[in-house]
Amino acid sequence: MNRSEKLSLLFSEDYRIIDFLPRAVSTEEDDFYEEAEQYFLQDKHLQEFCDKTIAIVLKVLCYFPFEIYVEEYKPLVNKREGWLKDKRCEMIVKLMKKVILKKRGQIDILLGGEDSIISISGGVLSIAVYHESESLKVLLEKIVAAEGLYYWKYRV
Q1: What are phi and psi for residue 117, nearest 5 degrees?
Q2: Distances from the Cα of 11 to the Cαs of 63, 98, 155, in angstroms?
Q3: Which residues have a Cβ under 8 Å from the Cβ of 23 and sit 6 or more positions away?
Q4: DSSP code per residue over 24-74
């Protein structure tokens, strides 16, 4: 199975969320949630979320081999996508900032040995973690809490 097939397969698994809220919002509160999320997607708050996301991801990447799949969406330009060849810290940070702060695109980090994915999408204040192992779950619980965010199971 190649990297792309593995990525597709793991996306079909249950997932957990790293989020700015401690649990899912009920449908009755959905309207206000959308307003609040738009508020937090503004400059200062979005920058804080971006900084926390970068800290979480870089700390996790210290513990696992990884591959990164990037999808860029630029207005009026064809979508660019593919596996990242340059996996230096500087490049990973640059890409995360671009996706989060420009609110478009997606980065999927495939953690080797764990068969887990950390997925970061532009325009949202959460990070999806697919097919987590127990060791990744324990690590993320510690790192996410230290960054002042929440880690919970998403129910479809």
Answers
A1: -125, 135
A2: 22, 23, 15
A3: 150, 152
A4: PPPGGGHHHHHHHHHHHTSHHHHHHHHHHHHHHHHHHHTTS-EEEEEEE--
Spatial CA neighbour of 143 closest among 61, 65, 23: 61
Buried b / exposed e over 23-58, threshold 16 CB at 10 Å, is eeeeeeeeeeeeeebeeeeeeeebeebbebbbebbe
Enter the pTM of the model.
Answer: 0.89
Tell me whether residue 156 is exposed, middle or buried, using C-beta atoms within 10 angstroms of its C-beta: 0 to 12, 13 to 18, 19 or more: exposed
Q: Tokens in use for 92? A: 């990973």
* 85-115 confidence digits (pLDDT tens): 999 999 999 999 999 999 889 999 999 888 8
Structure tokens at 42: 């503004």
Q: Mind listing the pLDDT tens digit for each residue in 47-76?
A: 999 999 999 999 999 999 999 999 976 665
**CA dist., res. 52 & res. 76, Å (int):** 30
Class of residue 8 by CB neighbours under 10 A (exposed 0-12, middle 13-18, buried 19+): exposed
Output the six-digit token pair for 87: 């996996």
